[in-house]
Amino acid sequence: MSTCPVQFNNTVIRDGHQSLAATRMSTAQIIPALEMLDSVGFGCLETWGGATIDAGLRFLNEFPFDRLDAIRKRTKTDHMMLLRGQNIVQYAHFPDDVVEAFITRSAEHGMNIFRIFDALNDYRNIQTAVKAARKAGAHAQGVLCYTTSPVHTIEKFIQMGVEIEEMGCDSICIKDMAGLIPPWVAYNLITGLKKRVKIPIILHTHYNGGIGAATYLAGTEAGVEYIDTSIVPFANGTAQPDTARM
What we know:
Distance between the termini: 17 Å
Shape: globular
Strand order of the largest sheet: 1-8-7-6-5-4-3-2
Strand content: 15-25%
Structural class: alpha/beta
Helix content: 40-55%
Number of helices: 9
């Protein structure tokens, strides 16, 4: 069992309400909670990326960078965003220069941590974003998207983690978007990764399968450095386990 303390990230401003309320919280609704969130001592606040930009433009009549500016100026905690690699925050590939420009501007507006993934774990599609984030002086977090299939073994995922570190990423996120990873797999995967990589590991899951808290406990025992939690009412269910429970 690990004796290292685990640090909590908080996702309520992005993934928490994206998963449970289709990212419909407006900036005005978020601002009153920022001082409290900022005072808790989270490792970071996930505040941007994912569907926040799409929902802001289409449904909330908000300009995404104005939202980021408003949240950033009211908080000192590091901010994190979810970036879809070469897709940025959309569902089609963009040229390298567009990816680089978006990351550069996001960093200038105060984004500290870029969680960069490709849904198929094709790391050719995150290389440009990783390099751009590091060039901008930000933290580049490479993502291992968890899924189940005959080829997605623990050994395969460990090798992916090694590739992420070799690419120059500052940390690795085990991202279980569907709430599929059982506790024993999380334990064995993190234990295996800790033997092969030196960069910090973050464990991210959702509670729709009802095993999220147990998975986080197993990951903590294996020595994971960070877990992602949210806050009720935008926690549990299809979102992350809630901070109070963990």
